[in-house]
Amino acid sequence: MPDRLSAIDASFLYMEDASTPMHVGGLAVFDRPAAGFDFGDVLALVRQRLVYLPRYRQRVVSVPANLARPVWVDDVDFDLSYHVRRSALPEPGSDAQLHELVARLMSRPLDPGRPLWEIYFVEGLADDRIALVTKTHQAVVDGIGTVELGQLILDSVPTDPEPVDELWEPRHEPSRTELVADALGERVQQPGLLMENARSVASDAVNTIGKVAGVVGDLASALRTVIRPAPACPLNVEVSGGRVFAGVRTRLADYREIRKRHGGTINDVVLAAISGALREWMLTRDTALTQDSTVRALVPLAVVDPNTMAYSSAGIVGNEVAPHLVDLPVGESDPVVRLQHISYAMGEHRDSGRWVAARSLLRVGGFAPPTLHSLGARTAGTLSDRIFNLVITNSPGPQVPMYAGRAPMTEMFPIVPLVPNHALAVGVTSYDGGVYIGLNGDRKAVHDIEAFATMLEESVEELRETLR
């Protein structure tokens, strides 16, 4: 029997279109070691790690007449060199040129006829740096059987790729007749699913998402507690197929000092800084703000299992990433008051008994940020886009250097996909003393993404000024 996509995985395929590709991404920058690190090294590293990720050599096949959800089948024509690609900037490549390349790569949907992932090895950066850009479809990463590829190509010590002993042989791809027979066999056992599959695939993917929303943590609870739509915001427009990207580098020590002085958590300080940047950006758009103006952020958060009150490497990055909606006080001009408002709003989550502290997350599953950002994006995709204005994912990372092969990683930026009618998504990751913020925006609605990035840096500095 083929491995069938879950309802939620299939929903991400159904809702995808040219303007909102459903892949999550990441940008990691490395120093090239003295011994060298080239495209062949990346190919060898990925080939070695694919042994642990069988889903990355499988593609999606639809069932005739939509009798059942699609299935995963081994790609008999799997071509590693198609998925691991080489690119270069004109030397010496600047950060702005790298960000433009990232934006163009992220705007292109993945090929639905192949395994749903790509890695780009980017050369030509100034100061002898290299970059890896990853793209993984949200249907692939469930956090239990499959994690984000960017999580497994990194190690805490320099390594050399090891020879791969396994000779991979794809399994037989089922024929159309076999797919139909298997689907009909399932229908005999679960007859109610026949009409559900036909309706969800043929007409309305949103209905599918609504049916499966209950499997992701506290989604139903979140929907019950938010009965009003999100406030009007210039970020909520019909998005185009183009993208813009910017990365913001800040220091973890600054957030710690601000937290120590004013209370709350580092996540609260991050949200307060983003609130300040949103305020300034909206003012440049002549948005009328009052003291009570807010922007509602969907902030997916890791939680423990409510039944066992425990977590594991599977549970914490599986169905236990829950949505949390917080109103960012963009109408408030005082940065400390903004932080206090956010700390109070986030206190309900911390007091729930299910909150997983950043320190605990770092002990779960090794280097987890790429997968946690993917799961956060999945959570956003299961909710009505009318109840929030933007998505902000935040995952702590290790405070020690990480390596791809022998190349030390210097910085990493998560790239969270846009959901329909949302022109900006923000991903935040701390790593080795830094806090790296990836801004993914619609090319028309947020054409001034670099200005927004500068406003975010200034917002952090504004909070730092309160320490003096």
Automatic annotation (TrEMBL):
Residue span(s) of domain O-acyltransferase WSD1 C-terminal: 318-463
Recorded metabolic or biological pathway in which this protein acts: Lipid metabolism; Glycerolipid metabolism; triacylglycerol biosynthesis
Pfam families in UniProt: WS_DGAT_C, WS_DGAT_cat
EC number(s) given by UniProt: 2.3.1.20
Top-level EC class as recorded in UniProt: transferase
Record family assignment: Belongs to the long-chain O-acyltransferase family.
An example molecular function term from Gene Ontology annotations: diacylglycerol O-acyltransferase activity
The keyword Isomerase is assigned to this record: no
Ranges where the O-acyltransferase WSD1-like N-terminal domain occurs: 5-270
This protein's UniProt keywords: Acyltransferase, Glycerol metabolism, Lipid biosynthesis, Lipid metabolism, Transferase
Gene Ontology cellular component terms for the protein in this record: plasma membrane
Superkingdom to which the source organism belongs: Bacteria
Gene Ontology BP, a term: response to nitric oxide
Official protein name in the record: Diacylglycerol O-acyltransferase
Catalysed reactions, as listed in the record: an acyl-CoA + a 1,2-diacyl-sn-glycerol = a triacyl-sn-glycerol + CoA
Keyword Lipid biosynthesis applies: yes
